[in-house]
Amino acid sequence: MSEAIHNRYEFVLLFDVENGNPNGDPDAGNMPRIDAETCLGLVTDVCLKRKIRNYVDIAKNEAEGYDIYVREGGVLNLQHKKAYDETGIKSEPKKLPKDKEDARKLTSFMCRHFYDIRTFGAVMATEVNCGQVRGPVQINFARSIDPIVQQEITITRMAVTSEKDAEKKAREMGRKYIVPYALYRTEGYISANLAAKSGFTAEDLELLWEGLTNMFDHDRSAARGKMATRNLIIFKHETVLGNAPAYKLFDLITVVRKDQTKPARAYSDYEVTINNLGVPSGVELIEK
């Protein structure tokens, strides 16, 4: 069995999009998410976690201990029922067993069985109750370095939907929303203390780094255009509690557009600066 982690971590992830919609907003007709006050683009933590889940599902192919709890089309109550079936515990479904050891067995099974529960945590207090887990890995919303332009592109389909439509027209018109180019930045946190409680291991951590680095290569679609992880910068503390505040570490990384007179259209249009000399004692900086 893989060993537990004994270090606190923070990380900064840089990724970009070209001619695609990195995260559509259902409240705005699925246009790219945007901060209304600054016009900076947004990508939610939920969106990024979905891509990590999908990568783990592909990489591990439902290997023991690497099932995915929140999957497309999944039914959470059925996922919870696996814990009751495995442990043989009989209880009133909407409540955890009064016996604390039985309740612990249910939650422990969910952590062991599902990678995303022991990584991101989960509230499993549904009609089939398996308790609650605080995940050691948390990710902020991603925000673009510069304001984005939400472009609406008209597209044509050279076929119609029905025979009735064919009597009136020979093609269908549609809409596609894209960002011509944007570089996004997000930050994340990994708690060794919470990892010990959920069972998140060193092997799980390496899989997380692998997922963050490769997730866009296995999430291709016409809507998302060309997306890629450009840099993953990790801060590893010597201790469980950490050796420096997270915000001070994040401030060591700056990203600016080289030429402010024209819009960016490639990653090379930006300069990423890492202040290695400012890394506090007891913190190791790792680039992947």
Overall description:
The chain is α+β, with helices and mostly antiparallel strands. The protein has one domain. 27% of the residues lie in helices and 32% in strands. The protein has 8 helices and 14 strands. The strands form 4 sheets. Strands 1, 4, 7, 8, 9, 10, 11 and 14 form an 8-stranded antiparallel sheet that branches. The longest helix has 16 residues, at 45-60. The chain is flat, with a radius of gyration of 22 Å.
| DSSP, total strands | 14
Structural class: alpha+beta
The fraction of residues assigned to DSSP E strands is 25-35%
| Poorly predicted ranges | none
Compute the separation of the termini in Å: 25 Å
Mean pLDDT: 95
Integer tally of domains: 1
Percent in helix: 25-40%
Q: Which characteristics define this entry?
A:
288 residues, alpha+beta, two-stranded antiparallel sheet, 14 strands, 32% strand
